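Most newcomers find our protein records easier to grasp once they have seen one. To make this concrete, we reproduce a full record directly below:

===
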Amino acid sequence: MDLEQLRHFLKVAELRNFTRAADLVGLSQPALSRSIARLETELGQPVFERQSRHLTLTEAGELLLGRAQQILALVEDTQLEIGDDGQSGRVRVAAIPTIAPFFLPELLKRFRAGFPHASVIVQEDTTDKLLQKLSDGEVDVAIMARPFEARSLDIEDLFEEELLLVLPTDHPLCGKPQIRIGDIESLPFVLLGEAHCLTDNVLSFCRHKAFQPLAIERTSQLATVQELVSLNHGVSLIPAMAQQLDTSPSRTYRSLSGTRPTRKIVMVSNPHRFQSRLKQGFQQLLRSCSQSSPPGRLTARPGDCRP
């Protein structure tokens, strides 16, 4: 067997569909089928159970799946280690949707200035999917928010960020000098879907304050949450980094009095993969950008980064 056969096998195993896998690996469906057939001939048994509308791994396929992932990861790490000069190469960076559009642009700008010969591949996805990609070696560094569980990954705290109450500009609470928890307990909330950890942050804070927010709408995009608030569908709690880029006159952001709701932003990586000097350089820049928040503030502003 060769490495291309293993890559073909992994793609089919991931998608459980020969046609879609063929499109992604750049082969015709018959060519991909022949590649898998040759692999099965060399192994002496099938790796897939082929049914009319369903494709599953055989026992041999399950064994090969883990070994193929290990083999290809070892090959990739070896190539990276041999060519690792700390200045060129590739780093794969990911972030959750409530961080990526607000924090990444300035960070990537600084990285390109300091490492002009390196390339960056950016991914944006939900927490669960990014954790899987880190474990599989598809991502080098991810910027995420607690809470989540990841026993086999390295998690490093970067900074704590305030969650701000966002209101329509004509809301009665906008005229109050201080807004307390009791002022918002009975208000309808617009939240992100359950796949987003920001919703966990909001609900956890509310439960700690002994109330359950009435979530009348859930969306998949933070921008949609903001627009629905503008249209008087409800209120919400939004990361401060999102507020700093919001120029809409139809929304107002306020800190809650007393204990403010926050989220902890973290850097996550896989300690079992090769730690290239380029990756370490990116991580150090990320730490620098995160630590440059003005004293006394919970938020780290993207524009305050220093290389």
The chain has eleven helices and eleven strands. The domain at 161-263 is CATH 3.40.190.10 (D-Maltodextrin-Binding Protein; domain 2). Residues 299-307 have pLDDT under 50 and may be disordered.
